Every structure is written in structure tokens, then in C-alpha cells.
Amino acid sequence: MKATIYISLKNGVLDPQGKAIENALGQLGFDGVDSVRQGKMIELELTDTDANQARGQLQEMCEKLLANTVIENYDIRLTDAE
């Protein structure tokens, strides 16, 4: 089973890296970009075949290590390994 975790800053949290990307895009001539928010994606290959059990473990991983839940949100997506 494959897990993809998308981590993004919560609304209202300043995103200096996103602002730097926004400014750089404008300097490169890419007009029409009003706002950029930067985040991260983590992919994991799991041996677990029970989706509910895997989701529980992934939530625990996010809460303890992968995401700073004070300022970040996370979204877990599970797919069958190909």
C-alpha cells in the first residue's frame, strides 16, 4: 500500500518561502499569480494491507513527527501499490 501525505501551512500562518516564490515568478515574467503557498509531500510504501490500521499509524506519524500540527495541516491519501 502506498501513502501520500500532503502537508501545508494553516490559513493565517505567514509563508515567507511562498512569498519568495511569488516574487521570483513575477520577476521571471509570469504574470497573474496572486498568491503562492508552499508545502511538502511525503510518500511512504507500507507493508500493512488494512487501510484503517494504516491510516491510524499514518495519523500518529504526522502528529509525532511529520507535521507541526500547531501551524500545519496534513492530508493522508492511500492507494494500492502498483
Q: What labels describe this entry?
A:
3 strands, Mth169, Chain: A, 82 residues, alpha+beta, 28% strand
Describe the fold and architecture.
By secondary structure, the chain is α+β, with helices and mostly antiparallel strands. It has a single domain (2-79), classed as Mth169, Chain: A. Helices cover 34% and strands 28% of the residues. It is built from two helices and three strands. The protein has helices spanning 16-27, 51-66; strands spanning 2-9, 39-45, 72-79. It has a three-stranded antiparallel beta sheet, with helices on one face. The termini are close together. The mean pLDDT is 95.
User: Judging from the principal axes of the Cα atoms, what is the shape?
Assistant: elongated
Largest beta-sheet characterization: 3 strands, antiparallel
Cα-based radius of gyration, to the nearest Å = 16 Å
At the third CATH level, what is the topology name?
Answer: Mth169, Chain: A
CATH architecture: 2-Layer Sandwich
Provide the low-confidence segments as ranges.
none
How much of the polypeptide forms β-strand, as a percent range? 25-35%
Strand order of the largest sheet: 2-1-3
Average pLDDT reading: 95
What's the CATH H-level superfamily name?
Answer: Phosphoribosylformylglycinamidine synthase subunit PurS
What is the CATH C level class, in words?
Alpha Beta
How far apart the termini lie comes to 8 Å
Based on secondary structure, the structural category is alpha+beta
Strand runs, count: 3
List the total number of helices. 2
